[in-house]
Amino acid sequence: MSSWLDSWRVLSARLAGHLRRRQLDSELEEELAAHLALAEDEYVRRGRTPEEAKRLARVDLGGLAQLQEASREAHGLPWLDAAWLEMRLAFRTLRRSWGLTLVGGFAMTVAIAIGGGAFNVIHAVMGATLPLDEGERVVALMAWGARQDRRQGVAPADLDRWRETLRLVEDVGGFRDRELPAKTGPALAGAPGHPVRVAEITASGFDLARVAPLVGRSIQRDDERPGAPAVVVIGHDAWRGRFFSDPRILERTLWLGDTEHQVVGVMPAGFAFPLDYSFWTPLKTSIGPAAAGDRVTGILSFGRLRDGVRLKAAQAELAAAGLTRGLYPASDEPPVPRMTSYPLAFVRAERGVALGIVLLLAGLLLLPPCANVAILVHARTVARQEEISLRYVLGASRGRIVAQLLAEVLALALGAAILAVAIIRLVGRYVQETLLAGNRLPFWIDFQGLPLPTLALTLALALLAAAIAGVGPALRATGDLAQAGLKSLGRGTGPRLGRTWTALVVAQIAFAVAVLPSAASMAWGALRPGILGRDFVAEDYLVAKVVPNAVDSGFARSRREFLRNLRSQPGIGPVALSRTAPGRESWGVVALLPLTSRASAPAAAPQDALPSRVALDSNAVNDTFFETYPIRGLAGRGFEAADFEAGEENRAVLVSRTLAVHLAAEAGAAGDLGRVLGRRLRYLNTAAGPSPENGPVFEIVGVVSDLPDNLDARILYHPLSADSSDEATLSVRLAGAKDGAAPRLWASAEPFSAALRLSDLRTLEDVYTENERDDNLSAYALAAATTSVLLLSAAGIHALMSFTIHRKRREIGIRSALGARPQRLLLDVSRQALVQVGLGALLGGSVAMALAYWIPVDELGGRSVPGLIPAAALLLMGVGLLAAIGPARRALRVEPTEALREG
Amino acid sequence: MGDDKSSILQGTLDLMVLKTLEQMGPLHGYGIARRLEQISEDVLTVNQGTLYLCLVRLVQKRWVAASWGTSENNRKAKFYALTRAGRAQLRSEAAHWHRIASVIERVLAPAGGGNPA
User: Which candidate in A6, A96, A260, A720 could, as Cys together with A620 as Cys, close a disulfide (CB 3.0–4.6 Å)?
Assistant: First the structure.
C-alpha cells in the first residue's frame, strides 16, 4: 500500500476524529471500562481478592487520564486545537489591551495598505495579461528609439515586410490612434461632430483577438486595399449610445472627419482591442508607389507567438528582420526593432525594477510602525512578566510561550491585513470609478480586482509585520525576563523596561518630529489650491496637444498657419503654444552657478564648492503665452524676439515668483526677487535622466507671477521657437460662449490634417482637477501615515509613563506617606519620561534641520515658515504630555498603605 | 524476573497486533494484550495503554476494523478484526521483518554465536 494513501487515510481519519471528539472520548471510556472489568475477572479467577484485582488491573493499563489524553491526540488534530487555543487567547489579550490593538492595528493597517496598494497598481499595469484567448502570447513589435529610450511608430513598409517574413509570430498587424470628429448622419453633415478616438487597424487585429462580431463582420484584409470603400466597425457602447441599438445598423453610416464610413459590424460589449476603442477603421498601409512619400506615422505593431515559440526566439527573428533605414526621422539615431509582451509596450519602466522598488518600499514602510508596535508589545509583556514566569514555572516550554506571544501579534497583523485588503479594494474602486473616470484605460487594466499575487503579498506583509513586531519582544520576554520574573515573584519589585526599548521610544519620537514638517508641508501643498480656489477661471481655457501627423510634412509651417487661422475665428481669444499644459510641467533639478563663473564652466570657479540643488518644473512657451494666461512680470524683462532664436550663448529663462523666492534664499538674498536676475543655472537632472556636465547654461532675465497666483509651483520658463517641430500644447482663451468651442477647435484643425492633429482636448480646469485628485489621494495617504506615527508616539510615551509609575509605586507610596507634595512627586516620577520625550524631540528636530538641506521641510507650500520644525517638536511634546496624563493621575491616586503592603 | 522482561522493539507492536488478529480472528483490546503476553511467555512487556494507541493507528490506516460486540463476561466491548488491506500489510511487513532478522542474525553469528536476546 503506498505511503501517500496511508497518509491520506490517517489525515482524513484524524479530521473525522477531530469533528467527533466527544463521541470518541466516551467510546474510549467505555472500551477501557470493559478492559478493566475483563482484567479484574481474570485476576479474581487467579485467586486475588476483588480489591487487589481492581488495583492490579489499573496498574497494568497505566494512567487513565494520560491514556485518554494520548488517545485524543492520536484521534484528532492536536496542532489545530493548540493553534485555535492560541488564537483565542490572543484575541482575548488583544481585547483586554484595546489601546495597543487600536494604535498598533491602525499603524500596521496603514503600512500594509500602502504597500499592498502600490503593488496592486503595479501589478494591474505591468503584470496583467490580455483578457483574450491565449492573451499571454500576444506581443508588441516596436521601433525603439535608443536615444530617446522610447517607442516610435513603425513605418508601414516595415510592417508590411514583417507581415510577409516573420515565421514565429502569426496575425502580425498594426494600428494607429486617430481622434476624429464623428457624426451619425448626413443630416448633420454641416455641423462639426464630437471627437472620438478611432483605431485604424489591420484585419489581423481581429484574427488575433479571436472575438467574433456581434452583428455583421469585422475588418477584413480586402478593406485595407487602396481605394476600398470606407468602412467602420463600432463597439457595443457606440451602437447603444449613438445608434440606440438600431437593429438595422448595417444600413447606417458614420461620418469620421470628412469621410462617410459604412458601418459593417458591431463588436460585443467589453471588446476594446487594441487599447480602449469603440471605433475601428481599416489601416491602409499598402499605399502604393504613387503615395510612397506620404509616410503614415504612429503605428504600433502586434502579433501572436505561434504555438510553442518562446519570446526570445521571436525577438531574435524580429532583430534579424530589422527596420529599414531612411524610413525614420534622419535627425535621430536609427531605431531598433523590439518585441515585448503586449501590455509592457505601454509602460516605460522595467517590470522587474518597478516591482523590486515597490516590494522594497513596502518592506521598509513596515519597519517604523512595526518597530513601534514591538515597543508597545514589549512594554505590555513586561507588565505580564509575572504571568509569563508563572507559566514557565508551571512547565510551559519557552517555545510554547513564544508561540503564544507571537500569536497575539500575528492576530493583530492578520486583522490589519484584512482591513488593508478592504481599503485597497475601496481605493481601487475610487481610483477606477472617480479618479480615472473619463480617462479611458487600456482594456486589460483593472484596479478594482484583487488578484491572487496582491492577496499573497498582503499576507506576506502581515507575516513580516508580525515577525518584526513580535519576535524580539517574545524572545526577550522568555529569555532573561523569565528569570527576572522568577525573582520578582518572590520580591515584588517591578521589572525595568530596558535601555534598548527606551532608546527605541526616543528614536520613535525623533522620527515623528522629523517627518511631521514634511508631511504637513506636502499635505498643505496638495490641499491648498482646493481650499483657497484659483484666481482665474481655468474653465475659460482649452488645452490640446498638437501632434505631427506625418514625418517631414511641414509640421511647423502648418502649425503656424493653423494658429493664425485660429486667432481670426470668433469667440477665440489669445492663443499660445507651450511644451506642456500649465500644471503638467516636467520636473528637473538645477544648480545655481556662482556669480563669478559667468564666462567659464561651473567647475572652474574656485569658490564653487557645492552648487546647491533646486528641484523645479520646467516648460517652454512661445511669445504669446504670457498674454494668454494671467501671468504678469514682477522683475526684469519678459522674452524678446531674439530669445526665441537664441544660439548657444544666450539662453534666457524666466522664473516664477515661487522659484525666484527660493533661488533668492539660496543665493543668500531672501525676499529680494531682483537679486536672482542675471543668475545662471544649469540642469543637473531632468525627467529623462542626468544632464551632461557641460550642458547648456541658462540666465535668468525676469521673474513672472505664479499661475494660478496661489499655486506655489517652482517653474522655469524657456522660450519655445515657432519653428520647433516637436509636439506642443495649444492653449486657447475663450472669449465668448464656451458651448461648442471644442467642436469648433476640432473643425479648425481639420484643414491641416495632412500635417497635424489635435489630441487630449480639455479645459485647463480639467487638468487642474485631475492634478488635485491625484494630490488629494497622496495627501490622504500621507495624513493616515502621519496620524499613525503620532498615535504610535503617544502610545509609546503612555507605555513609558505607565511603566515608570508601575515600577515606582512603592517609592511613591513611601514618599506620599512621608508627606511629599503631589506636584513634586509627579515631577520626580515622570522626569525620566519627560527627558526621553525632550531628547527625542531634540534629536528629531536636528534630523529635520539636516533634511531641510535637501528637502524643503521648513516650508509650507513653497513659502519658508520659520519655526515649523520647533513647532513640530513642541506638538510632539504636547502629545507626549497628554499621553502622560492618565498614568500620572494613577500615580497620584496610589494609596500609601496599599503600596507599602504590596512591597 | 521483571528485570529480564524486554520492551517491545519500536515499530514492531503493529506487526504483532496484525499477526495476532490474523491467527485469532476478531479480538477485543484486553484479549490482544493477553495473547501477546502468552505468546511471549512473559518475556515481553506489553504496555496495555500503548496497545490502544496502536489500535487507533491501525484503524486510521484501515488495516484493522473496529466494531462493538459482547465479551465473554457479557460486557459490551470493542472488537478488532483484520481487513484485507491489513492482511496485505501484514504479509509485506512480515517479509520485511524476516529479511532484516536474517541479516542481523548473519551479522551477529560469527562474533558471538549466541542468542542476542
Answer: A720
Segment A146-163, tens digit of pLDDT: 666 677 788 888 888 898
- Cβ of A61 within 8 Å of Cβ of B61? The answer is no
Cβ(A541)–Cβ(A732) under 8 Å? yes
C-alpha cell at A140: 508588441
Cβ-defined contact of B56 to A39 (cutoff 8 Å): no
The model carries a pTM of 0.61
DSSP A238-279: HHHHHHTT-TTGGG-EEEETTEEEEEEEEPPTT--TTTT-SE
Q: Please tell me whether residue A286 adopts helix, strand or coil conformation.
A: coil
pLDDT at A600: 42
Q: What is the pLDDT of residues A804-816, one digit of tens each?
A: 776 777 777 788 7
First to last CA, chain B: 15
- B75 and A37 within 8 Å at the Cβ level: the answer is yes
Give contacts of B77 with chain A, Cβ < 8 Å.
31, 34-35, 38
Interface test with A, best of B7, B28, B47, B48 (most A CBs within 10 A): B48
Condensed to tens digits (0 to 9), the pLDDT of residues B83-104 reads: 999 999 999 999 999 998 899 8
Range list of β-strands (E), A706-795: 715-719, 728-734, 756-763
Cell numbers 494520560 correspond to: A66
What residue ranges do the domains of chain B occupy? Answer: 2-108
- CB A34 to CB B30 under 8 A? yes
Positions in chain A short of pLDDT 50: 1, 186-191, 287-295, 489-494, 597-610, 903
* Interchain pair A38, B73: CB under 8 A: yes
| Closest residue in chain A to residue B45, using alpha carbons only | A60
Does A74 sit within 8 Å of B57, measured CB to CB? yes
Which grid coordinates belong to B102?
536474517
Q: In this predicted structure, what is the pLDDT of residue B29?
A: 92
Q: How many Å apart are CA A171 and CA A169, to the nearest integer?
A: 7
Q: At what angle do helices A764-807 and A351-383 cross, to 10 degrees?
A: 30
Q: Tell me phi and psi for residue B95, to 5 degrees.
A: -60, -45
Partner B contacted by A43 (CB < 8 A):
no
CATH topology (fold) of B2-108 = Arc Repressor Mutant, subunit A (1.10.10)
Which residues in chain A touch residue B33, judged by CB atoms under 8 angstroms apart? 60
Q: What angle do CA A771, A774, A780 make, to 5 degrees?
A: 135
User: Using a CB-CB distance cutoff of 8 angstroms, which residues of chain B are in contact with residue A14?
Assistant: 60
CA distance A389 to A215: 77
Q: Which long-range contacts (CB under 8 A, 24 or more apart) does A666-671 make?
A: A666/A592, A666/A612, A666/A614, A667/A592, A670/A864
Residue A299's contacts (CB-CB under 8 Å, 6 or more residues apart) are A153, A154, A155, A156, A159, A174, A175, A176, A283, A285
Q: Does A41 lie at the interface with B, CB-CB under 8 angstroms?
A: yes
User: Which pLDDT belongs to residue A266?
Assistant: 94
pLDDT at site A703: 92
Q: Does residue A293 sit at the B interface (CB-CB below 8 Å)?
A: no
Rounded CA separation B10/B57 (Å): 14
Q: Whole-angstrom Cα distance, residue A659 to residue A628?
A: 21
A5: nearest CA in chain B? B61
Mean pLDDT rounded to a whole number for chain A: 79
- CB of A18 less than 8 A from some CB of B: no
B86 to chain A: nearest residue by CA? A1
Q: Which residues of chain A lie closer than 8 angstroms to B92, CB-CB?
A: 1
Distance from CA of A404 to the nearest CA of B (A): 29
pLDDT score of B64: 94
Which of A31, A44, A69 to mutate to test binding with chain B, by most B CBs within 10 Å of its CB? A31
